[in-house]
Amino acid sequence: MSAVPVRHHRELIVWQRSMELLIATYALARLLPREELFGLTSQMRRAAASVPSNIAEGHARFHRGDFIHHLSMARGSLAELETLLDASESLRYFGADEVTRARGLADEVRRMLGSMIMRLKAKRAPRKSG
């Protein structure tokens, strides 16, 4: 039984979860003080939007290496977002309970991206003849 190919990035569970993370991040960003509009608010939104955007862009590329590269960029944006969540919490803009959903989604997306990258790299690796 062969797997059905994913034809559109919207079918990727990792893209769907990263969109949920984007929505959760925007909700958190609305809680930040007005003076953070061009600081943390803007950076959090940009980093959150970058995750599903890179997944979608990579999926649309013709080469597996391009997809891996964009998944790696999505992981970098995810790490940036997690750092910004940590900073916002450290600055007491919101408490741990307010970021629980975003942190859970970020953790899930990070694991999924890592797994996808490893699977794609394994498919790309040349086979040794023996």
- Mean of all residue-level pLDDT scores: 92
Shape: elongated
CATH architecture: Up-down Bundle
Number of domains: 1
Helix fraction? over 70%
What's the Cα radius of gyration? 17 Å
The topology string of helices and strands comes to: HHHH
The total strand number stands at 0
Question: In terms of structural class, how would the helical and strand content be classed?
Answer: mainly alpha
Biggest sheet statistics: none
Mind telling me the CATH class?
Answer: Mainly Alpha
Q: Could you state the CATH homologous superfamily?
A: 23S rRNA-intervening sequence
CATH topology: de novo design (two linked rop proteins)
Describe the structure.
By secondary structure, the chain is mainly alpha-helical. It has one domain (11-122): Up-down Bundle (de novo design (two linked rop proteins)), CATH 1.20.1440.60. The protein is 75% helix and 0% strand. The chain contains four helices and no strands. The protein has helices spanning 13-29, 37-60, 64-90, 96-124. The model has no long low-confidence stretch (mean pLDDT 92).
Describe the structure concisely for a colleague:
The chain has 130 residues and is mostly helical. It is built from 4 helices and no strands.
Architecture blueprint of SSEs:
Elements: H1 13-29, H2 37-60, H3 64-90, H4 96-124
List keywords for this structure.
about 130 residues, mainly alpha, de novo design (two linked rop proteins)
